[in-house]
Amino acid sequence: MEGFVIEGGTPLTGRVRVQGAKNAALPILAATVLAAGTYEIHDVPQLTDIDAMCRILQSLGAKVERTGHRVTVDTIGLNQTHIPDELMSRIRSSIFLMGPLLARLGKVTISRPGGCAIGKRPINLHLKGLACLGVEVAEEGDIIACSAPELKGAEITLDFPSVGATENIMMAAVCATGETVITNAAREPEIVDLAAFLNKMGARVQGAGESTIVIQGVPKVQATNHSVMPDRIVAGTLIIAAGATGGEVELDNVVPEHLESVIESLRQTGLAIETAERGLRVQAERKLTGIPHIVTTPYPGFPTDMQPQMLALLTLCEGTSRVTEKIFDSRLKHVEELKKMGAEIRLEGDTVTVHGIRRLTGAHVCATDLRAGAALVIAALNAQGRSVVAGVEHIDRGYERLDEVIAQLGGQIHRVALKKQ
Ligand code: UD1
After folding, report:
1. Cβ < 6 Å from ligand 1: which residues?
2. Is the pLDDT reported for residue 115 higher than 70?
3. Is the pTM of this model over 0.90?
4. pLDDT for 330-342, tens place per residue?
5. Which residues fall within 8 angstroms of residue 391, CB to CB, at 6 or more apart?
6. Separation of CA 342 and ligand 1 centre (Å)
7. Confidence at residue 100, expressed as pLDDT on a 0 to 100 scale
8. Which residues carry this modification: 2-(S-cysteinyl)pyruvic acid O-phosphothioketal (predicted)?
9. Of 32, 134, 162, 416, which is most buried with the most CB atoms under 10 A?
10. Which atom of ligand 1 is found nearest the CA of 327?
11. Which ligand 1 atom sits closest to the C-alpha of 303?
């Protein structure tokens, strides 16, 4: 087990390049299953979740080579339709392989992904959407066996704009006969990146980024190359880290429009955020003030993936702020950890009320999930004295060497081995 030891109080300053987006790279890697061929995917972040996806592709018979941020995937020999349980349990994103495997080989068997630290996370919308395309779904215990001799275009209305279900259905529909219309589709930028990748392969996907996506089935697609979009959540996390330390940071490889709702909220606190040559510049030039109420909603609303980091910042903003988590049912475990650092914070149901204090105090805290971990790092960078953030394996799922990036900006952070408790 590893942890970060952080001495708080140094303003982050300097310039860094933001990594490629995990949440775009994962479905794009899954989509390489669609057509036999060799793909070069660039700007793939080096993360444990990406390692797991590469291992799954290998277990299905693909060859995967990684050089820095380039991943070469050769799916010519891919011939397996069962995703091993051990790998399935490692990343939920393995469900992205359902759509592509059904499209390529007509079959897929997975074990049902369980709940996780942030909530129950069912997959009913994935299964319902695939069933509309003609997939037969047989469930026995935790095993889900899907088969589809032929996929047929259909009109699918999602009960909720699920990111993963939208992506899975899009991938399954690429080579289905006829037209597929997804209504109430998720609109996240990662869906637009996946659509761009699929269209480069020869698919005909229109409307990604809007609530209605139309896919005209094509008989065949082929391998292609692609560069993954920048990670908007990592960018948002670094902006907040700069803000919480009273620093000044320039971020390259950012698409400011992807962060509109986050930037709007951060400007309300008083942070100065401007577009820069290749991204954004952030400066904490004055005392920050709280925000009356932030509610997480699907894109383009305030992202659930930025809620913990925002909450960490609000513990330091003058006045009272409220944050309501509406996407996941159990994504507020960091509240207890922030309390250990002196935050004046109260949780009632899905809503957190925060009274800002001037500075947090260093403490031993534990990351329970990826973004909660990022929030605790932000809090520790602000705190007076030394903090130890345990559970770094969660952070490594989504942030490429966060400790090194922060150290590059002058933050006092070290990765250490922790004894098991
Ligand atoms: C993706 C992101 C994750 C982000 C989330 C919401 C990836 C790899 N992960 O996760 O970082 O936090 O979007 O922006 O892209 N739901 C159902 N049934 C389903 C599917 C989802 O009830 O079949 C519910 C979930 O439990 C959750 C909500 O819908 O409450 C949103 O989930 P979804 O948009 O599907 O998130 P993911 O794709 O899992």
Report:
1. 23, 26, 93, 119-126, 160, 162-165, 186, 190, 303-305, 327-328
2. no
3. yes
4. 899 999 999 999 9
5. 1, 3, 366, 367, 368, 373
6. 32
7. 97
8. 116
9. 32
10. 30
11. 14
